C-alpha cells in the first residue's frame, strides 16, 4: 500500500510538472508577444521620425492640401489626373503589354478574415502606423486652422473637377482605353510611365480658366 501511495504521489508530481510547463510556455508566449509589440512600436516611431511628411490614401485630398500649406504651394500645383482614367488597363512592364484591371471582389469569408483579431495582431505595426499618421494629419489641420483648411480643401476639390473636365481627354496613357500600347503618345503626355499624365494641359489650366 505504501509503495502504491508513493507511486500515486509521483504521478501527481509529474502532472504538476506538465501543468507548470504549459503555464511557462504560455507565459513565454505572452512575453514574446509583448516584446514584439514593443519592438514594433519602436520601429513605427523610427519611421515617423525619418519622414517629414506622410500621406494617407484614404485621405488623399486632405493630405495634399496639408502639403500645400506646409510647402506654401498654389492650389494648381496639386492638380493631377487619375493614372487609370483612360480606361481599365495598366501597363505590365515585364512584357510591356496592357492588361485589363480586374474589379476587386472581397468574399464574405475574406472579409471575416480581414476583420479577425488574428489579422489585426499579425499586422499590428501597419495599423499602428496608420493611426499615427491619421492623428498627425488631424493635429496639423488643427494647427492650420479648421476654417482656413476647409476653405482650401473646397477650392482644391473644385479645381480637381475642372482639371478632369478640361484635361482628361487630352491625356495619353501608355495603355489606351481599348488596351492598346501607345508609348509614343504617352511620352509626350506623361512624366514617366503612367505618372503625371496630362501635365501639359494641367500646366496650361490656370491660363485657360483665367480667360
Automatic annotation (TrEMBL):
Among Pfam families, the record links this protein to: Gal-3-0_sulfotr
In which residue ranges is the amino acid composition biased (Acidic residues)?
7-28
Query: How is the protein disposed in the membrane?
Result: Single-pass type II membrane protein
Q: Please give the name of this protein.
A: Galactose-3-O-sulfotransferase
Q: In which domain of life is the source organism classified?
A: Eukaryota
InterPro entries, sorted: Gal-3-0_sulfotransfrase
Q: Which GO terms describe its molecular function?
A: galactosylceramide sulfotransferase activity
Cell compartment(s), UniProt:
Golgi apparatus membrane
Q: Where is this region: Disordered?
A: 1-36
Q: What is the organism of origin for this protein?
A: Nitzschia inconspicua
Annotated GO biological process: glycolipid biosynthetic process
Of the GO CC terms on this record, one is: Golgi membrane
Keywords of this protein's UniProt record, alphabetized?
Glycoprotein, Golgi apparatus, Membrane, Signal-anchor, Transferase, Transmembrane, Transmembrane helix
Amino acid at each position: 500500500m505504501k509503495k502504491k501511495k508513493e507511486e500515486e504521489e509521483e504521478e501527481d508530481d509529474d502532472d504538476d510538472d506538465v501543468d507548470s510547463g504549459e503555464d511557462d510556455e504560455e507565459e513565454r508566449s505572452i512575453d514574446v508577444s509583448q516584446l514584439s509589440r514593443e519592438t514594433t512600436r519602436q520601429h513605427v516611431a523610427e519611421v515617423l521620425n525619418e519622414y517629414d511628411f506622410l500621406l494617407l490614401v484614404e485621405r488623399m485630398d486632405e493630405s495634399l492640401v496639408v502639403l500645400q500649406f506646409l510647402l506654401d504651394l498654389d492650389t494648381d500645383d496639386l492638380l493631377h489626373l487619375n493614372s487609370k482614367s483612360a480606361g481599365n488597363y495598366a501597363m505590365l512592364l515585364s512584357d510591356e503589354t496592357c492588361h485589363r484591371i480586374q474589379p476587386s471582389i472581397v468574399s464574405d469569408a475574406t472579409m471575416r478574415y480581414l476583420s479577425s483579431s488574428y489579422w489585426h495582431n499579425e499586422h499590428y505595426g501597419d495599423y499602428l502606423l496608420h493611426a499615427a499618421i491619421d492623428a498627425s494629419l488631424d493635429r496639423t489641420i488643427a494647427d492650420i486652422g479648421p476654417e482656413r483648411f476647409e476653405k482650401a480643401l473646397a477650392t482644391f476639390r473644385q479645381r480637381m473637377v475642372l482639371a478632369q473636365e478640361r484635361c482628361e481627354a487630352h491625356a495619353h496613357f501608355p495603355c489606351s482605353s481599348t488596351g492598346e500600347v501607345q508609348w509614343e503618345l504617352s511620352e509626350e503626355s506623361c512624366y514617366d510611365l503612367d505618372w503625371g499624365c496630362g501635365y501639359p494641359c494641367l500646366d496650361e489650366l490656370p491660363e485657360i480658366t483665367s480667360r
